[in-house]
Request: fold
Amino acid sequence: MGLIGKKKNKSSEEEIVLPPLEFKPKAPSKAEVDGIMIAARQLPGFPMATTLLAMAMVDRADIIMLDFTQTGVAVRFRVDGIAENKPPLEREPGDAALVALKRLASLNPADRRSKQEAKLPFHFAKEDWIAEIVTQGVPTGERVMIRIEPKKTKLKTLTDLGMRDKLQEEWRGFLNATGGIVIVSGPPGHGLPTSWRISLESADKFVRDFVGVEDKCKQEPEIVNVSQNTFDSSAGEAPSAILRSIQLKQPDVYVIPDFVNDDTAKFIIDEITIENRHCITRMVASDAAEALCKFITQYKAHAPKLIGKVTAILNVRLVRRLCDQCKQAYQPTPQLLQRLGLPADRVKTLYQPFIPPPPEQRVDAKGNPIEIEICKKCAGRGYYGRLGIYEVLKLNDNIRKAALQNPSPDAVRQIAKKEGHKSFQEEGLLAAVVGLTSLQELQRILTPPAKPGTK
Reply:
């Protein structure tokens, strides 16, 4: 299907029409919203803008990427974490569609250089959604990213995220403990904000007083029974600017997404040591070992005392979930199972995606076309949705000592493995054994990116 929103077969005039999409611009009054919509519908690019967003929704994309150059507009959708190239747009209709989107979002269509951001609500398939639009001029033209999220989150529990039951029990134990620091971590694009929100939702906030300390310049999700207090980073403030006043309320748990400075680290150390308080924070990192090293390096003035308070670190990687309508079972060889460390007497079957060959290869020996049915659920991708693979690094004295002596992720990983830590690979294999994902997908996610200059 092209970006015109419908497709005609050569043998018929039957059209495939996309489901209707209704924009709901943000404005102070209904009259102003109506005015924005009336003006937008008269723009030549309004049908293309609507079609572009509707096609992304049909494809289950969570990001639309548009790259404007002198000759045209490259279009990509991100589906289940994978960028897919779509038919490009000619420059004129592409420009017209962008003008319509900017008008709907109350942005300036004439400004093609400055960074502009806005949220544009819309309704599709009986649900409300938010399109977060970011535009920025680049040397080749303009780059546009549209991030699509449901207005009401569909992921509400650790089970929804894909965390296995035993690990959930462990993680809740660390969240609900006292006298320590727990860290939620993950690499960019792998669901760290969602893991953070649901971890907080999973903690027992009914018998303990949770207080949040957040930057007013960075919107945090509202969590039930976590009272929010803000500081202003644009004015040079850090959490330490308001922690003294919060301390008077004698909270049980501090929820601080970013310590920002050493003063906050020292305050939390003192609160844990003297008052047996608890703290939940987060860190962007590729795995738990890297999160630990970054944490103590960032606040190295207090590293020995700080690491003594860290009890556990959660880290997440998102993998594509095999489509349950078309995944294919196969019998792994004994050699493969041995290499993976899986017991041959217990693992009889693994699963892989069914991905149909490209159209030019769907022919028999004589070159005649062969009809291959494409899975209607996943549209031939072999995967449908994503799930989290989680590791929980439980700190002990040996791991703490190793991190202080050599704060490198590799050194921490080696000691953690000796201490019985279950790595991402082991957690991922558990998901593969039960048919949630494939070995190919685990390899894609867990293989480190090639260093510059290497093949």
Notes: The longest helix spans residues 91-104. The CA atoms of residues 85 and 153 lie 27 Å apart.
